[in-house]
Write the structure tokens for this entry.
Amino acid sequence: MTHQWHSSDKFNRQAEGWDENPRRLGIAESVFRALSETVHFKAWHEVLEFGCGTGLVTMQVAPLVRKLTAIDTSHRMLGVLEGKIMATETKNIESRCLDLTDPGEMHLLPKGHFNVVYASMTLHHIDDTAAFLKEIAGLLAPGGTLAIADLDHEDGYFHDDAEEKVHPGFERRALATMLEAAGLKNPAFRTAMTVEKKNRAGRQASYPIFLATATKPAA
Ligand SMILES: C[S@@+](CC[C@H](N)C(=O)[O-])C[C@H]1O[C@@H](n2cnc3c(N)ncnc32)[C@H](O)[C@@H]1O
């Protein structure tokens, strides 16, 4: 099973100012648009988001579904989300501070239950991608969809902190193979947006973000 790269200290520190970064708001908006066009959320859906952060995508998905379980390892990121839940009197989001790379915590969630499991910009923070995808696929109900938005394979300079342990994005073909190895069918990719930014090396560079989807076979 996977182990955690322990990014929660960093995200605890960043939580308060997280939503002030226009690039993050833009990514969340584009990922939500790609998700809603691709996944077709239904009012009866039970949905899980892992790495929900402050809920930039969460708060947009929640009105479309029956229940959204929002998971993160950073209690301060979740604290910002909980403030939004209270302010908007949203009733169908359950936020939980769990590390899904910890087998004991993963097993607190019901297997074979969720119609959609999704994440935005979280998979690159998880060390053992293939093992994690197998575990998370086990939470899907038959016919359910896994949807993951993340960076295409990048030059390694996207993140500002050179010491941070992250994957430099993902090769689409390699990720498709891992999704199939996790027992999912029909992996498909689209580009949700491209981030244009000056990277850590000071170069202006383009960083596409994909949305990958794959489905659990119906029983
Ligand atoms: C780059 S942020 C993205 C947050 C949010 N999805 C957004 O788009 O603003 C990655 C998030 O994943 C969370 N995270 C990292 N590892 C995790 C894990 N093993 N389980 C759950 N959440 C995790 C971090 O705490 C952080 O909030």
The helical segments are 8-14, 22-39, 58-61, 75-88, 103-106, 129-137, 172-181. The longest strand covers residues 185-198. The two ends are 26 Å apart (CA to CA).
